[in-house]
Amino acid sequence: MGLNYPFAGENHVPSYQISATPWVTSSTIALGAITEVTFSHVSRFIHIKNNSAASTVLAVGFTRTGMNAPYNNFLLLTGSETFSADLRVGRIFLSGSTGATISYTVL
How far apart (Å, rounded) are the C-alpha atoms in residues 8 and 25? Predict the structure, then answer.
């Protein structure tokens, strides 16, 4: 009988335990584009900030399918708004919903 060695991912406990390693990214996203942000380890918590003006909206999703119609399963962050949560995720998806270019930060 062979051994099933665990691999890094959402169900890999050591990845979750060491995930408090500092990690940060900042960038911009164009209107309608979907950007995938992949973490170096499975996250323990995330903090996302829309750094743009109040008239902009940043969509934050956890699957690429959820970012598209007809599902529309995402959070909306208006300009200067933040979202923080204790979540175990390996990646998130960001999209510019309104505004020309949106600046964001993910911790």
Answer: 21
34-64 per-position pLDDT tens digit: 999 998 877 878 999 999 988 899 999 999 9
Place of tokens 């051994």: 3
- Is the Cβ–Cβ distance between 103 and 27 less than 8 Å? yes
pLDDT in tens, 8-27: 766 777 766 665 678 899 99
Give the pair of three-digit tokens for residue 81.
Answer: 């708004």
Question: Virtual CA dihedral for 7, 14, 83, 35, nearest 10 degrees?
Answer: -30
Contact indicator for 93, 67 with CB cutoff of 8 Å = yes
Partnered with residue 98 across adjacent β-strands are 57
Kindly state the tokens that stand for 22.
Answer: 């500092």
Rounded to two decimals, what is the model's pTM? 0.78
Q: What is the CA radius of gyration of the chain?
A: 15
CA 34 vs CA 8, 20, 29, 63, 71: distances in Å:
25, 26, 8, 11, 15
